[in-house]
Specification:
The complex is a heterodimer of chains A (247) and B (611). By secondary structure, chain A is an all-alpha fold. Helices cover 59% and strands 2% of the residues of chain A. Chain A contains eight helices and two strands, in the order E-E-H-H-H-H-H-H-H-H. In chain B, the strands form seven sheets. In chain B, strands 1, 2, 3, 4, 11 and 12 form a six-stranded mixed beta sheet that branches. Chain B has a five-stranded mixed beta sheet with strand order 18-13-14-15-19, with helices on both faces. Classes of the chains: A mainly alpha (247), B alpha+beta (611).
């Protein structure tokens, strides 16, 4: 197993339902009797794959590992096994598929890391149950959002009073540019923070927490940028010739 | 233990195959024919005919003969009214129930009819093994294929048919994926494969990645009501129009059908042929060009699903290394041209497109019983799975194209004090609103321990197995009590609707999202208003306010409440959302106060009971 960079994790064990032996929680097969273990208690997606909690992942290696694990516990290979093993294979395969889906995408990988590090999910729509207002404009975007909303309002007004769609489309394109730039800058920041997290294996809890908080901020910002781009796309659609003829 | 076979249970024809010495082969009759027409006919003396003989009886006893029953598998009568028109046999059933097919004075469900075909295939295989001198010739287990785009109800119906035929169904496998296994046997290379499967009644497109013997489906799409049947119907309608009068005896329609199918087959090899019906005194020349013009709209309906599958797989057409043709309808030259254009390369058709699915099913059956690990199929679920939430919005739990087996979980709670059951509506489809998706089942969770509203934490777990079939379990986490689940499968919507929904979902995505966001904002607002008003109305509220609230806090809550109520009926989502946030904020402290009291009371109640 790869050493886990997160210290102070209690060593958890799992009991093999076949022979009763104890197994580390992220083992897939019993070290004693080699039967597949029930998925009862388990670690997280990273440890399930035998990976450290790092954000920069070699995609090809992840894919190989996914195929390798699929070959170990896919239900196809447990057709003749006992019912408990068949169930274990089904649950382990489902978990593997969920884990692979989450880890192969860099953003859902960050979301999973935040979740297992105990941070609340980064969702921009709607209030959280604690009543916190989560959808305020991220500070780094205030200027752009203000400018864009003004532009959108004007374009909308002009469209409704019969402005030239071609000219408005052009205006919309130029209104989009600063947001596209923000989006690119955002991608760079996410990459930089991901790399920073990976270098912090030995850092203090406070330093790590700061990186995680920054990553979470970035995800909120990402949602916000995507919403802005979606509202531009909506307006662009209203400027399509089809919509125009409907008046 | 008996023998294990792979079965392609097709709309028009079915086949059975098995693996011998590592090589899959189709089991043929004495004349070398591997196809068993999926036709069942009830004889005048009450005996049943299946296959070729039943096919002949389509002309002589049309009202006692059933074909294309696959189209009715897992569907309700409301789903199929439109397409039952030109069929010579009776299609009925109670509203909200499964389709029933009437033959003479008897009624059959589609799985029962399919079971006749499966029994015939089982018999054919057993005869074969007996002739081979096998001592243990009984066939008791099978892998059966279904269109990749089949939903849960259609898969379940297929499994039921297998059971009815005395077969243990080891696995339900998707047809295009099975085909890729058969191809993969000879060519163990790696790369991206697109399987274009246009059969008698269904269309599937699957994009696979093959590496190290793992056949991983990246995305699948399709149309469960598009195939050779529809081409035949266009030709039949053409003849009916031209021969004057569309209302003809069922026997005539079957004669026309037989003649146009022959002409369709001719046009695969020649540029021009004749549709000739002696009995109706009708003959007409038809060129390939005319034929192609007639079927163009049908064939073009396959383009959008192909594009969507590629997009879902995150691939450009040029990144596809090989395109593979499956299904009898891919013999039509026009179809081949469309596929070549879509992928920019000549598609593969080395294996017989009628047989390749059955061969793949046999390979999969062999993998299951032998434990051979050289090859592994990783398939996906074709449609998203979700549950209905407040306001008719669908909350997606397992997204389409998720590798199966897949699981998902969702937390529920109660809305009323001491509520002991919760209704859950499970849906499949891509649209945002429940009314636009296919209803799979309704569940009732019972036995929730009585608690104040909102306190129970009921976890519902959804599991899609390797067959693509769903199961559900639930438990209340605070008490760790498992819930009993009552399942009522539903057939609320047609599959045309499901497919149209998928296509429409891209066209309507924007309108859907707007509608959904407004509904969600209103739901959120409504629940905060209800909770606030309920608390303010409590007889002991003045006492609580005096004890725990700040001066002026009550007034602030009241004015936030009034402001939100004013905008609730409107369509201004932002206003609803912002004022909901404001009310939430204003009541945050009050909510904490109430929660603490609630928990204290609940615990107090529990202690009393425990004593």
């Amino acid at each position: 197993m790869t050493p886990d960079p997160i210290p102070a994790q209690p060593v958890a064990t799992l009991e093999c339902r076949n022979c009763g032996a104890g197994a580390p929680v992220d083992e897939h097969f019993c070290p004693q009797c080699s039967r597949i273990l029930a998925l009862g208690r388990h670690g997280d997606y990273f440890s399930f794959f035998g990976l450290p909690r790092r954000l920069v992942i070699d995609q090809a290696q992840l894919e190989r590992r996914f195929r390798d694990l699929s070959r170990q516990f896919h239900p196809d290979y447990f057709y003749n096994a006992a019912a408990t093993e068949r169930l274990a294979s089904l649950e382990r395969s489902s978990y593997l598929n969920d884990a692979y889906r989450a880890l192969r995408n860099p953003i859902s990988r960050i979301e999973h890391l935040l979740a297992i590090e105990g941070l609340p999910p980064a969702k921009s729509e709607g209030p959280s149950s604690s009543g916190q207002v989560a959808s305020k404009v991220p500070p780094g975007l205030l200027e752009e959002v203000f400018e864009l909303n003004e532009q959108l309002d004007e374009i909308r007004e002009s469209r409704e009073s019969g402005g030239d769609p071609a000219a408005l489309r052009e205006r919309l394109e130029s209104a989009r540019k600063p947001i596209d730039l923000k989006r690119e800058e955002h991608e760079r920041k996410v990459e930089a923070l991901s790399a920073q997290w990976d270098r912090q294996a030995m850092a203090s809890p406070a330093e790590k927490r700061a990186t995680l908080d920054a990553l979470r901020e970035r995800l909120l910002e990402r949602n916000y940028i995507n919403n802005l781009l979606a509202s531009i796309d909506r307006e662009a659609q209203s400027l399509e010739p089809k919509a125009e003829s409907r008046g | 233990m008996g023998k294990v076979v792979g079965i392609d249970l097709g709309t028009t024809n079915s086949l059975v195959a098995y693996v011998r010495d590592g090589v899959p082969q189709v089991i043929r009759d004495a004349s070398g024919d591997g196809l068993v027409p999926s036709v069942v006919s009830l004889g005048e003396d009450g005996t049943f005919f299946v296959g070729r003989e039943a096919q002949r009886r389509l002309l002589t006893a049309p009202s006692r003969s059933v074909y294309s029953v696959k189209r009715f598998m897992g569907r309700g009568i409301d789903d199929v009214r439109g397409e039952a028109e030109l069929l010579p046999f009776r299609v009925g059933g109670e509203a909200g129930g499964v389709v029933r097919i009437g033959l003479d004075d008897r009624e059959f469900t589609p799985p029962e009819i399919s079971a006749f075909v499966l029994r015939e295939l089982k018999q054919r295989a057993e005869d074969h093994f007996r002739e081979q001198g096998e001592f243990d010739f009984e066939v008791d287990r099978a892998v059966i294929t279904v269109p990749a785009y089949f939903n849960d109800a259609q898969r379940t119906a297929t499994r039921d048919a297998g059971r009815l035929a005395g077969l243990e169904v080891l696995r339900i496998v998707n047809e295009p994926t099975a085909a890729s296994l058969a191809y993969g046997l000879d060519r163990r290379d790696r790369g991206i494969i697109a399987v274009y499967d246009l059969g008698g009644g269904t269309f599937d497109i699957s994009i696979l990645k093959v590496e190290d013997g793992v056949f991983q489906v990246l995305a699948t799409n399709g149309d469960t009501h598009l195939g050779g049947d529809d081409i035949d119907r266009l030709l039949v309608e053409l003849v009916l129009r031209e021969s004057g009068g569309s209302s003809r005896p069922a026997g005539d329609i079957q004669a026309i059908r037989k003649a146009v199918i022959a002409a369709k087959h001719d046009l695969t090899d020649v540029e021009e042929t004749e549709i000739r019906l002696e009995t109706l005194d009708y003959r007409r020349r038809i060129t390939r060009g005319e034929f192609e013009q007639l079927i163009r709209p049908l064939v073009e309906r396959t383009i959008q699903p192909v594009r969507q599958a590629l997009a879902d797989a995150g691939l450009e057409p040029a990144e596809v290394d090989e395109a593979v043709l499956v299904g009898g309808s891919t013999r039509v030259p026009f179809v081949r041209r469309i596929v070549s254009e879509l992928f920019g390369r000549t598609p593969h058709s080395e294996l017989n497109p009628d047989e390749v699915v059955a061969l793949g099913a046999a390979v999969q059956a062999d993998i299951l019983i032998s434990g051979r690990r050289e090859m592994l199929l990783l398939d996906v679920t074709p449609l998203s799975l979700g549950i209905e939430t407040m306001g008719g919005v669908v909350s997606k739990i397992i997204l389409r194209n998720s590798t199966i087996p897949a699981s998902g979980r969702e937390m529920f709670t109660t809305g009323v004090d001491n509520q002991t059951s919760v209704d859950i509506h499970v849906l499949q489809g891509e649209r945002e609103l429940a009314n636009d998706c296919r209803s799979l089942a309704r569940f009732k969770l019972r036995g929730i321990p009585p608690m104040p509203a909102g306190l129970p934490r009921i976890e519902v777990r959804f599991q899609i197995d390797a067959n693509g079939i769903l199961s559900v379990a639930a438990s209340e986490l605070r008490t760790n009590i498992a819930q009993t689940i009552e399942v009522k499968p539903s057939y609320g919507l047609t599959d045309q609707e499901v497919e149209r929904m998928l296509i429409e979902s891209f066209e309507h995505a924007q309108a859907d999202i707007e509608a959904r966001l407004l509904i969600e904002a209103r739901n959120e607002g409504e629940s905060v208003i209800t909770a606030t008003e309920k608390t303010l109305r409590r007889p002991d509220f003045p006492e609580i306010a005096a004890a725990d609230l700040q001066p002026g806090e009550h007034e602030k809550i009241q004015s936030a409440l009034d402001a939100l109520k004013q905008v609730m009926g409107g369509a201004d989502r932002d206003a609803v959302r912002d004022l909901t946030h404001a009310l939430n904020h204003a009541t945050q402290h009050l909510a904490e106060v109430m929660m603490n009291r609630g928990v204290r009371e609940a615990l107090a109640g529990k202690n009393v009971k425990d004593v």
